Here is the input.
Amino acid sequence: MLTDQTRREAFPSLEGMTYLNTAAEGIPPPAVGEALQQYFYDHQLGMDGRERHQAQREAVKTLTAQLYGLTPAEIGLSSCSSEVYNLAALALQLQSGDEVVINDLDFPAGATPWLQPTCPATVKVWRARGGGLRVEELIPLLGPATRLVTVSLVSFFNGFMIPLAEVVAAVRRHSPALLALDVTQALGRIPLHLAGVDLIVSSTHKWILACHGGGLVGVPKERTQEWTVPAGGWFNLQDAFGPHRFEQAVSLPGAASFTVGMPNYPAIYAIRAALAYIQSVGVEAIDAAARPLVLACLEGLARLPVELLTPQEPDALAGILAFRHPASEKIHRYLHAQNVHVMAHAGRLRVSLHGYNTMADVEKFLQKLEEALKLVGAN
Here is the structure.
């Protein structure tokens, strides 16, 4: 990251490849592989390895807390963001008459628990306009019955970044709702300022460059009661093996209640190494290096005959750009054949730029995209 030498050392697999798909899968540095190997060595100790496993877990909580702006006691670990949201739904215990606000730029994990037939709440959809979620169109959806507003800081769909401080102010002014924020497409890529957020959620295999199998939960101490999960399990319970264990189950408070069973220690080892790597580079430095690439890529896309899905609003950009074209699948195949890796889904092409990308990556992508557009136009 950030220099040619450190990029070659930390990401040897990127040599000769133009990888612009971190929003789907991050490329892990060697330290992550070494951490997974360390887990294997520690696990060979049997029960004596548990102390080492727990030390890794505590390190992840500390590193995550630093990025979230919380304390380690306010951090919980789960298996993925989808599990976190389902446990959050269990904690809320919504009733008929309650209202939940979701949005149409969000990943399914944050929206679908509230759409299941078992959820008695009424769901309202905050719909994007011009590719962005506008606060003035959130306000009419809020009211005394609103229990939850759930949204991503950065949309997986088109990269739009919400004006978080304005969203927090609107939710507080117009409702008693809790605000759940998914930072999966932001954590490790841009600095986070999460004051006023009531539940923070992230997966671990994208911008922090770790692996699958992790969900990083943040519950500020003042929201402990609202986000204590009444789930069966053992790791999440106050006295799972006590004399009254077949008479009652009492969850640990707040973030700790989101780890219902044995932690996924292999993933935890990888997450610890990845977060330590990200911290060693510095999120501010990553953003400073990658932001000019995003702006240059957006400028290049705006000159081409594609339908931009990402608003051309610099303040609303993080690391993702998206566009459509009628021949998107053919374009994607051409790009892949040229060793240019982007995401294609349902007619949408998505580009994502991290600290290991360079201006040469942007230039090659735009060049190969223009070639592809000419080819499909000729056909």
Observations:
- The mean pLDDT is 96.
- The radius of gyration is 22 Å.
- Residues 4-29+282-378 form a domain with the Aspartate Aminotransferase, domain 1 fold (CATH 3.90.1150.10).
